[in-house]
Amino acid sequence: MEYEEIMERLRNVVSTDVHPIPEDALEKEKKRFYETHKKSLALFEDAKNVIPGGVEHNLSTTNPFPLAMDRTKGYKMWDIDGNEYIDYLLCGAPIILGHYFDPLDDEVIKIIQEKGPSTGLTSEYEVLAAKEIIKHVPSVEMVRFLQTGTESAMAAIRIARAYTEKMKVIKVSGSYHGWSDQMVYSLHLPGTGPLESKGIPVEFFGHLIDVMPNDFDALEKAFEDSKDQGGVAAIILEPVGGESGVHPVHPDWNRRCRELCDAYESLLIFDEVVTGFRLDMGGAQKYFNIMPDLTTFGKIIAHGYPAAGAVAGRKDIMEICDAGLAREPYLGGTLAANPIMCGACYHAIRLMEEHDAVKKATDYANQLTDALNNLFATREDLPFFVYNYGPIMHYVTTAFFSVDLQGPDPLNQIMTRKDLGEEYQMVATNQGLNSLAGTRMYSCMQHDRAALDRTLEVWEYLMSLIPKN
Ligand SMILES: Cc1ncc(COP(=O)(O)O)c(C=O)c1O
Question: In this structure, are 209 and 279 located in the same domain?
């Protein structure tokens, strides 16, 4: 689906009434959830005594309570009550070969058994893993491994400031680049500023410029206005749009960012924590054919094995961050580049290429997107739709992420739409579908016809609970 159509449909969803599940049907679903997830509930009650709120995974559903998982295989996942799920969360994107993929796990187990977890010193896997990334990602000439996507964004920004000797950083509103002090600003919904920034001094955002997505004039103004205030060191962005495309990217946006970075001698940072090795083996930069100066990677480079992250990019830039005394800028991490992560990285990327994982996951996502849109079209009263960037699918039902903050009663709109989205998700969970935030589905190379058919059945069931207008 093209950008203009996505935007028009999104506007349509947020400007029309929501479609609730009637109270009696909802009560039945809730009762069913409690009855079939007893062990998860017991664990949650226990966890509340030792873990704040009883849950520490931001991607976990909490309505009515979080589920505890037991095991996985391929695209399937089982919770501790033995319920089976088709998994579209896939650990928040990194699992593209499929869960618990023997050829990868066997290699990692061998490293653990034969070599031990880490030494704090260099191993051969570090070089093999860096070469594997460089082989596929066109703008990358050097790699520095870190431990998370959050750290990778922190590092990229620090490197950009050190390299350009400029201070300002532009962030596209609504994007997620991890939870470091300077990046927790306008998360999830564009324009929300410090709403979720409790615990972070407001001064920390002094050099951050929050630009609304696809606002070309504001983008240019941010570069121009910064000239007398230390200049723009970098713009950091998710190349498919904020929240992995929840806020879709205008077809000209990445190119314009590149042009402005060139014109103002600033660096372009692509956050490819989700898009790298998922949208394309060469990441979003290859998919859109726009080359950033720096790229950040996270969980996907080790296919879910900890601790995975990397900042990578042009040689002349990356060379300023070698380890050692009196180097600048300072980067660290005792467990960064440990042999388990680097071994997993090397073998995971090798196996993704060998199995054509991105293409298979993309083919599935294209088919599921079409099939769901056909199904949704059978109910003209429902504005539901799905769009995808390769194996990243967004399904829109209540569109709480797209509520206009300047519109009437935005907070109430957001909460009503979010709550209803969670109710839909509870029904889907009862039926054995696991997705991200009730809005997103990632596919892996093992999703198959059976998964597709079952997914459609679940949606058909969900829609049957919503009365026709
Ligand atoms: C686009 C993007 N950047 C950065 C991060 C942060 O990565 P991590 O959770 O490994 O810190 C995430 C996490 O989901 C992400 O989606």
Answer: yes
